[in-house]
Recover the amino acids of this structure.
């Protein structure tokens, strides 16, 4: 086996890889690396009372950091500059200040910092936003117009606490509970605070409580009926105009996510039956006259405008694919972040303009996805398939790239990791197994108690289809994924050892019992919900769902990567699993890097993909696409690392 360690701040590259300084569009840089290095930007968030002041995330320097953008002048300025990157930030309503979360090397445990919008260089002028609060995991933030902030915190010792912080005054605690909770929003006038909580003990289905700034309760909305009914609620936001106390709420009363309007001061509920299939979310237009509806259905999404009481929603035209975020501007236009599997992301406006065009060469495109529906033991399973351009006919070596979450889903959206495998001659299959969102509440909630095993039943059904259809070479099927996908990879290698030729597990749950005891408190609550109790209360369920239980059955070579500061899939439980592999002399390699649950450093991400590609090459052999590439390049390897001591897998 090989033990590898690495640093996200100064990653090394294989000797035969392109230099990091090479231009992203250079012919010496493979297309798969160009996709990672191409500058990306998030959908800009704008200050409610100063809409020309915006905040976005970009990787323009090679590390994902926060940037301020003055839309009136066009000036853009980097706000944060940390070795391991920064993505969590917020603008005050007046646009005068930026709050950003400062943790240690990706461990997600830290404090909120503040700096002026028109501050100096990144890293200068920052000060603690709330000096009286100790470090914690974040549990929501809302900032009011008078400078008041509502700060949610989570720690292993205290559970969740919520504090009201007024300018010049010490923080005042208004909420505390052992179960997970968080700050949802603050009303326009700052008098009402809405909290999402799981005091009933079901971490998958939140209830809502609206309180005043002193913590006294105004109203409750709870669809769980004390935990006996599995219906959740989510906060979508208070109406953004003065004197309007209406709250936009997401609910599951018809078996899927939909919006409704609730006025906590009167108790009035307004049902919004939009007639759209799939899951539906929404946000207010700035004048609260209408809702911007985001509709997700069968791995794709689109936008609609809806005026309550005015009839059917009206489509906001977007190309086929996925909308990853959208916002309505004060002038009535809508800005949205769009991509498809074949086309890189772009921030568009309904005015026809590209809103924010990052500098430098653009990311090369990839191949489109095909939709596949497979009959599984729990119903029809939706999978997205990408085939390499050459050769035209299968069977192909095939990577089953399993998404994290588990309450998430793969969509027809641009993803550099799968595109890299396609470039190298692999087919890629992504499975929206039971537990995935976007297919109704029953599908999402189905994985309880038989956690992991249910998802793998769906993945096995899709694998069987892939082999029988001629897509996948049964001797070269790879199980891969990060986070929950990494967990399912290790669990699948042990419970389905005849199905998989290789495993690539990034930041996985490997030893479920140890993971439970070491992980952040909110995830403990989620695991108690999924498995029906603690490891001491339901030991048989934790054992049945733990990859460590089946480690002696693993026969395929397995690659594991882990962040040493990861609070979600902590390193100790990964080491326990690796030790068992060592005891068996099982074929495995391990990469440890100095970050948390994944890396925000572009070169680190490239290293990890390069290492996965190299591991597959060494254990599965060369694909046709790779052989053709060597012929074109005169025997080179197209930038893939050959030495496992200097390369890595995905996070």
């Amino acid at each position: 086996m090989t033990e590898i360690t690495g640093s996200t701040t100064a990653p090394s590259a294989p000797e035969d890889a392109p230099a990091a300084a090479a231009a992203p569009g250079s012919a010496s840089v493979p297309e798969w690396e160009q996709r990672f290095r191409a500058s990306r930007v998030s959908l800009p968030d704008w200050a409610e009372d100063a809409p020309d002041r915006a905040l976005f995330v970009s990787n323009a320097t090679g590390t994902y950091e926060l940037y301020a953008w003055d839309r009136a002048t066009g000036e853009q300025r980097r706000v944060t500059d940390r070795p391991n990157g920064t993505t969590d930030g917020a603008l005050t309503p007046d646009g005068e200040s930026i709050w950003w979360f400062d943790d240690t090397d990706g461990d997600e445990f830290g404090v909120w910092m503040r700096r002026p919008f028109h501050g100096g260089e990144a890293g200068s002028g920052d000060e603690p936003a709330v000096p009286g609060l100790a470090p914690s995991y974040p549990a929501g933030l809302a900032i009011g117009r008078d400078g008041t902030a509502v700060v949610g915190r989570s720690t292993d010792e205290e559970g969740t606490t919520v504090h009201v912080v007024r300018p010049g005054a010490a923080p005042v605690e208004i909420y505390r509970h052992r179960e997970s909770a968080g700050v949802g929003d603050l009303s326009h006038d700052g008098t009402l605070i809405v909290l999402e909580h799981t005091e009933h003990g079901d971490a998958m289905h939140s209830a809502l409580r609206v309180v005043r700034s002193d913590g006294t309760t105004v109203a409750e909305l709870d669809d769980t009926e004390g935990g006996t009914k599995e219906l959740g609620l989510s906060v979508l936001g208070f109406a953004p105009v003065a004197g309007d106390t209406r709250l936009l709420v997401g609910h599951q009363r018809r078996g899927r996510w939909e919006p409704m309007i609730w006025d906590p001061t009167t108790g009035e509920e307004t049902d919004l039956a939009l007639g759209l299939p799939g899951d539906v979310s929404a946000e207010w237009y700035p004048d609260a006259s209408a809702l911007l509806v985001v509709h997700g259905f069968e791995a794709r999404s689109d936008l609609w405008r809806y005026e309550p009481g005015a009839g059917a929603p009206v489509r906001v035209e977007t190309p086929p694919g996925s909308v990853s975020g959208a916002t309505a501007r004060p002038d009535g236009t809508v800005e949205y972040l769009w991509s498809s599997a074949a086309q890189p992301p772009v921030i568009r406006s309904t005015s026809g303009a590209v809103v924010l065009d990052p500098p430098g060469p653009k990311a090369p495109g990839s191949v489109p996805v095909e939709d596949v529906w497979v009959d599984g033991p729990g119903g029809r399973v939706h999978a997205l398939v990408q085939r390499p351009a050459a050769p035209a006919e299968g069977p192909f070596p095939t990577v089953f790239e399993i998404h994290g979450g588990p309450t998430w889903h793969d969509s027809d959206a641009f993803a550099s990791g799968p595109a890299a495998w396609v470039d190298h001659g692999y087919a890629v299959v992504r499975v929206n197994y039971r537990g995935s969102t976007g297919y109704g509440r029953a599908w999402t909630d189905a994985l309880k108690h038989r956690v992991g095993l249910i998802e793998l039943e769906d993945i096995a059904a899709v694998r069987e289809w892939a082999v029988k259809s001629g897509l996948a070479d049964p001797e070269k099927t790879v199980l891969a994924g990060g986070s929950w996908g990494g967990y399912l990879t290790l669990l699948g290698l042990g419970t389905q050892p005849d199905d998989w030729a290789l495993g690539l597990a990034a930041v996985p749950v490997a030893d479920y019992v140890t993971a439970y005891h070491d992980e952040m408190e909110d995830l403990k609550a989620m695991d108690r919900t999924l498995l029906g109790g603690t490891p001491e209360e339901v030991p048989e369920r934790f054992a049945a769902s733990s990859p460590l239980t089946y480690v002696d059955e693993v026969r395929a070579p397995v690659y594991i990567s882990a962040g040493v500061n990861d609070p979600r899939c902590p390193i100790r439980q990964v080491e326990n699993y690796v030790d068992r592999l060592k005891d068996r002399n099982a074929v495995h390699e391990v990469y440890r890097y100095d970050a948390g649950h994944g890396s925000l450093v572009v070169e680190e991400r490239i290293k990890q993909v390069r290492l996965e590609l190299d591991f597959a090459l060494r254990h599965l052999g060369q694909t046709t696409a790779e052989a053709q590439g060597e012929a074109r390049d005169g025997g080179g390897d197209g930038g893939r690392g050959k030495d496992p001591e200097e390369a890595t897998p995905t996070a």
